Amino acid sequence: MADPAGQAGAPTAPVPNTPMRELRGGLSPAEFATVIRRAAREIGEHVSCDARYIGRVESGEIRCPNYAYERVFRHLWPDRSLEDLGFAPRSAVRRRPTARRPAPPGHPPHLHLHHPDEENDDVHRRAFLTGGPTALATVLGLDGPAHSTDPLYSPTPLPAPRRVGAADVQIVEQAVREIRLADDVHGADTLFERAGQSLRNAYVLLNEGDYSPTTERRLQAAAGELAISVGWLAHDSNRLGDARSFYAEALATARMADDPGLEAHVFCNSAFLARDAGRPREALRAAQAGQSAARQLGSDRLLALLAMREAGAWALLRDRSACGRALAEAEALFERGESQADPEWMSFFGEAELAGLQAQCWAALGDWDRAAARAGQAVALQEPHFVRNRALYTAELAHDRLGRGDLAGAAAHGTAAVGLLGQVRSARIRAMLAGTAARLRGHRQVAGVTGFLLAHDGAAAAA
Question: If we measure between CA atoms, which residue out of 107, 109, 108, 111 comes closest to residue 99?
Answer without folding.
Answer: 111
